[in-house]
Amino acid sequence: MSLSKAQIRPLYIGDLKVSPPIIQGGMGVRVSRANLASAVANEGCVGVIATAGSGQFTAHPGSDFAMVNEIAQRDEIRKARSQTKGIIGANIMVALSDYDRLVSTAVDEKVDVIISGAGLPFNLPGLAAGTNIKLIPIVSSVRTYNIICTRWKKTYNRLPDAVIVEGMNAGGHLGYSVEQITEGAPTLEQILKDILEYQKEKKLDIPVIVAGGIFDGGEMRYYMERGASGVQMATRFVCTHECDVHQNFKQAYLDAKKEDVVIIKSPVGLPGRVIRNAFVDSVLKGVRFPFKCKYQCLKTCDPSVAPYCIARVLADAAEGKMEQAFAFAGSNVYRCNEIISVKELIQKIIQEYADAGAKSPA
Question: What domains can you pick out in the chain, each with its CATH number?
């Protein structure tokens, strides 16, 4: 059974039409940049540039890191715009110490969408006031979603344009405790159900996008049949020709086995899902890699007690220096087995969506 993207229900975020209904997840540090985002946008999806650490470690040690990141972010957004007429978004973590500045930069550059998680983006509407930029918080529970909606409505008289509901199978920093992950947090399906029930109760008509371990079109269909308006996918986009990360990083994905995907505690106090390697083994054994911090790029990082610099590690990974770094990845990374173009990947996802429908009982 074949299917065109036009036969899959589009995702509407205000006046933006996303078809097929896929948001490419923002992956920092410097994993999802202009080349990947523009290629995704050219296929009708939302291409997202991750702003965390955009320019960090690339300039003179005495440089103002916030200024360096701002310049790098502007360059990436402008480069993406030069390569597509599609939808470009910026993923900006609340935990970043230069969060307000990065949001203001994204606003200045007129991105279509700002996606914000790793904290509660209480002041995001104020930073984007007077624009038509779509604002999308990332939440992991109906409680968090309610807090954001209540605060935004009271303070700014507005609500999110969409919400991304992220389950515990996502890659990178997770919005769950280690105990929740190991002992069992609510499933993505349950969180989606809770969010949809909340919206019905509050009479809200806000698109709900699911994320965290979504790997193929069959899973996309599964969640859309249960009320999701679309999906956010990240891990699988790493294994594309257009992904901006070094080939060694991509190879780590291709080589990963299911048992290689582990949870570690990040120096910033959050659990993170990574691909195990020699560096990760050292971290798990408690080996410290002392460093002097010139940036304080994350609000929750205390360099005096952090065993290593997470920003440095991720920047090294993006450059392919895997012997002194690790790759963040989603729980399904072991299913990656080829490097293909973004166009081919989207076509595969559409076909997987169709095939899942063919297997469904009539």
Answer: 5-246+336-359 (3.20.20.70), 250-324 (no CATH)
